[in-house]
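Page 37, top half.
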Amino acid sequence: MYLIGLTGGIASGKSTVARRLVEHGAIHLDADQLARRVVEPGTTCLEEIVAAFGEEVRKPDGTLDRQRLGDLVFHDDDARARLNAIVHPAVRELSAKLIAKAEAEDPQAVVVYDVPLLVEAQVDHPFDLVVVTSAPKRAQVKRLVEERGLDPIQAEARVDAQVSDEERRAVADVVIDTGGTIAHTMSQADALWVDIDRARRAKHA
């Protein structure tokens, strides 16, 4: 198996790169989706969150009220740290199981694990390669406004709340510049796949 950690700031083109690698044959795991799975009704994780933050973070239908929880932790570093201490280990455990399953089904598999908080959560799976998507702040803000409907002040706050591009680049083996056209991003992803395929073959030779 060949395991790639994919990370980058909000609206920095991670999903575009992930989609392109999947088109080439990679298996895609999305940490955000896994984070939703570990807090579904009936999970230990959800019960721990309710115990830590109160019954008001649970909707009447039993699901997590993500909006309310987000409001509680967004400007409170301690609260966010408490939440992360509950969610991150559960996501790590689930992702490790899914990575192991992919390898058992196909020892030659290329798995792209898309982890927005790879740096912040200190995700330390044994990655063969860490890929960082990088776009200028103005491009990220513009995308959040145009594609996700945020107002510019909200959008800027979201970008500023994350670790810096420099910190992400520090852990990168490969940086994909997503500040230009989609075609430019795609061509970099295609070139990356050629390198991945070569490295995978060498690893299994």
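Page 37, bottom half:
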Amino acid sequence: MKKNAGVTLPNRYQQGVLDAGCDEAGRGCYAGPVFAAAVILPEDFYHPLLNDSKQVSAKVRETLKTYIEEHALSYSVAMVDVDEIDSINILKASQKAMHLALDGLHIRPEFISVDGNYFISYQNIPHQCIVKGDGRYAHIAAASILAKTYRDAYMCQLHEQFPQYNWYANKGYGTAEHRKAIEDNGLSIHHRKSFRITPSQLSFFE
């Protein structure tokens, strides 16, 4: 048990086993892939700034990313692209991304802890869904950091090709600026066509 910004974060939900924390990033975005990460931490893992990726700055996330990659027993990051999101829907795509991340671990977990309230069983490994788990357990927080930093870097690369949407700043989320850019420029190949984001539908999000 380690203290983090006044909160005690156990490293694992299931103690005494190889427990992989899982989380995704980008599920609610208008554009870009959905990313997911799986992380197995050592029992003595600790960083004083580790928290849910939404609760720390971009600079701190980058520091944590490096620390997690250097100290995790195993970690993996995966993505599912826009075409597949539109084909199978974002919920299934998020689940697939988490399964792909678990596939990438070089250590097979004995238990899986997932942020949120829904998970499709993976290879008959027992799991637990934990609402707001990225702020309650270090291994899920670490997964949230990796998923977020990898996705943000990817969206910054896409920004170079499509600067009119300013994905460097909004990372594909439905900000007012992004919605205005869609009104002015239409949808790009990286926008999720299955989402209600065309100009005639933008009022849906008001």
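Margin note: The first strand starts at residue 2 and ends at 4.
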